[in-house]
């Protein structure tokens, strides 16, 4: 059995850990929100993965800075609380116990710290909920129903708890990346993807809204048809995310003076991406 002082000290540590946990949840919720937000059309599952991978590499402050550029009224209402949350999280992570060294050595001081940590954690949790609620609303506007989202969330939680799934962590295409071949993904008479690029480590890449992103990695080899017109342009070491780029409108320099270009278009009212290979 712990004495009263030791029990209270342990409680301080427990509430500190809980507050940091809630801060990390908020950071990830904001990364997800920023991944679904935007006007780019079309937006594919692979673009979502690329956005999410980029956001997961960022820290809380820069994520809130990116959030500040969004014009949705719901975002405007959340901005100041999120900016305050950045300051609170940084204080918690870097200075909290140092700045409260005197408080920590008295019973009343520790009681105050527990109350303070509870308030901080509740703020983080509230903003986490608001951020995910906004992300769900945007996802629904893009065609993902509430029912489908809830079903997938429930299934993923079951997979995580059973140990059959790991926390989702998409990869970002490294810069530079070497492209060794180009193919068309065709299942019998159906073209599933007009251009699949293959990297030197045997990863499949697709054209995304702002450059190359990882596509499905389980494409049957027999369904990949080599695009012979790319033979003189490959292999090539490239920047997968061109600096001069707007959504779906960019160029990637390949080998021997060839360039892979992408531009947006519309067919029968639906946004599509057109691409081509040119020399010079």
What do these coordinates show?
The protein contains 8 helices and 9 strands. The chain folds into 2 domains: 159 residues, no CATH class; 103 residues, no CATH class. The chain is elongated and about 75 Å long. Helix content is 48%, strand content 21%. Strand 7 and strand 8 form a beta hairpin. The chain has 280 residues and is of the alpha+beta class. The strands form 2 sheets. Strands 1, 2, 3, 4, 5 and 6 form a 6-stranded antiparallel beta sheet that branches. A 3-stranded antiparallel beta sheet has the order 7-8-9, with no helix packed on it. The mean pLDDT is 93. Helix 4 packs antiparallel against helix 7.
Classify the secondary structure makeup into a structural class.
Answer: alpha+beta
Please compute the radius of gyration using only Cα atoms: 24 Å
- Count of alpha and pi helical runs: 8
The ordered string of helix (H) and strand (E) elements is HHHHHHHHEEEEEEEEE
């Amino acid at each position: 059995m712990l004495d009263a002082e030791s029990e209270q000290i342990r409680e301080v540590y427990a509430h500190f850990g809980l507050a940091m946990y809630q801060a990390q949840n908020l950071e990830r919720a904001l990364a997800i929100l920023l991944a679904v937000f935007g006007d780019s059309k079309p937006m594919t599952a692979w673009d979502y993965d690329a956005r999410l991978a980029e956001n997961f590499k960022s820290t809380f402050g820069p994520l809130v800075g990116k959030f500040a550029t969004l014009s949705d009224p719901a975002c405007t209402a959340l901005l100041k609380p999120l900016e305050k949350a950045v300051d609170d999280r940084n204080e918690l992570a870097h200075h909290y116990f140092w700045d409260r060294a005197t408080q920590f050595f008295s019973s009343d001081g520790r009681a105050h710290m527990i109350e303070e940590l509870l308030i901080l954690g509740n703020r983080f949790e509230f903003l986490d909920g608001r951020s995910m609620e906004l992300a769900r609303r945007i996802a629904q506007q893009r065609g993902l129903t509430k029912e489908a989202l809830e079903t997938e969330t429930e299934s993923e939680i079951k997979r995580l708890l059973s140990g059959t799934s790991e926390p989702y962590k998409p990869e970002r295409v490294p810069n530079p990346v070497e492209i060794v071949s180009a193919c068309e993904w065709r299942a019998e008479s159906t073209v599933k993807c007009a251009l699949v690029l293959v990297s030197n480590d045997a990863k499949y890449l697709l054209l995304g809204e702002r450059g190359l992103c990882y596509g499905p990695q389980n494409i049957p080899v027999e369904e990949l048809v080599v695009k012979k017109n790319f033979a003189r342009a490959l292999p090539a070491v490239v920047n997968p995310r061109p600096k001069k780029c707007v959504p779906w409108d960019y160029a990637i320099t390949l080998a021997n003076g060839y360039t892979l270009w992408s531009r947006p278009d519309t067919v029968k009212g639906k946004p599509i991406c057109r691409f081509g290979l040119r020399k010079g």
